[in-house]
Amino acid sequence: MYKSFFDENQWVHFGRENDFSDVNGTFWSWRRECLRQARIRFHGAVDPRILETLLGKFPDFERAHSESGLTTEEFDSLGATRRTLRQFIAGCMEMNALVRDIILPNPDTE
Asked: Does residue 71 sit in helix, strand or coil?
């Protein structure tokens, strides 16, 4: 699902058939720029002062940051892991609904 949503070629035909070409072009330009900025931001190490602050304030962060801090079972039950997974699943469900409504519109709301 991820691959099909983020592959420009997968969505090209919507621009031709449904006049979404401007939306598609804007979306892909925006996406490319976001990826470019993310690469710039995440290039290099985290400032040691920031890392010290996080390690001092959040015991779970300290455990997760250390190579031997968490077992696989502990990682799977960690609050941050579960929140991230729940958010990802919710986003997938929203994306599925969006794609469904484009491909197969609800006849009761047309």
From this structure: coil
The pLDDT tens digits of the residues spanning 18-64 come to 444 555 567 778 878 888 877 776 667 888 999 999 999 988 888 88
Cβ atoms < 10 Å from Cβ of 20: 17
Q: What angle do CA 85, 39, 11 make, to 5 degrees?
A: 65
89: enclosing H helix or E strand? helix 79-103
Distance separating alpha carbons of residues 92 and 27, to the nearest angstrom: 18
DSSP state of 110: -
On whether the pTM is more than 0.70, the answer is no
Report how far apart, in Å, the C-alpha atoms of 75 and of each of 43, 47, 89 are. 26, 25, 18
Residues with Cβ within 8 Å of 95's Cβ and at least 6 positions away in sequence, in order, are: 1, 5
